Amino acid sequence: MSKFVRKGTHIGILCLHVLVLATGAFAQGRGRGGGVGRGSGGGSSNRGGPPPGVGVDRGLGNASERSGGRSDAGLGNASDKSNGRSTAGIERARSNNLRRADDDLRDHPGLPRALHTNANDLRSGYQAALRANPDLTFGNYVAATRLGQNLNPRFPNITRDAILNGLNSGRSLGQTLQDLGLNERQAKDARKRADEEIKAARKNR
User: Fold this and answer.
1) pTM higher than the cut 0.85
2) For residue 144, what are the contacts with CB-CB under 8 A and spacing of at least 6?
3) pLDDT, tens digit, 9 for 90 and up, residues 30-81
4) How far apart are CA 61 and CA 71, in angstroms?
5) How many Å apart are CA 183 and CA 22, to the nearest integer?
6) Those residues with Cβ within 8 angstroms of residue 46's Cβ, 6 or more apart along the chain or in another chain
7) Residue 194 in contact with residue 146, Cβ under 8 Å?
């Protein structure tokens, strides 16, 4: 074999070897580059984490969707109705108010008679009212009872229950009386008369 042929063969083998090495390096670099890009740039790979879009936030959203919004509404309604208090807190408010009512009735036995009732019925009525409004004071319940007795003959829509409904909605006694049709002066006079009668009843034993 001539020297020229041997030299050409050697050069060809060398070029083939370089091409093979270059092709392998390119493929390896592409594989590593693609993997890093997907893991760090938001591609399809998440390296063992949860599937895209799945997490705590989506779980809460799905709970709301599956329940037709009942989970969100339920939490909101519970907070609204209790002013953010727990059931135990509401029951504690009722219990405390009822205990104060018992003390008041024990210290002022003439109060039920002035309201044309007896202590047991007055207490039972107040206890029932507390189920609708755990923050209702016994004083306001007594005032609503007396105002209803005084005003109902002239204003049929003004009853104890109507006044209690106003108090339950957050209105004061004066505001409630005006909501029920009295003007400001009439409401003030009615409250003054009821207060005087209740004070007199507390003095009687």
Assistant:
1) no
2) 160, 163, 164, 167, 173
3) 444 444 444 434 444 444 444 443 333 333 334 334 444 433 443 333 344 4
4) 10
5) 98
6) 39, 52
7) yes
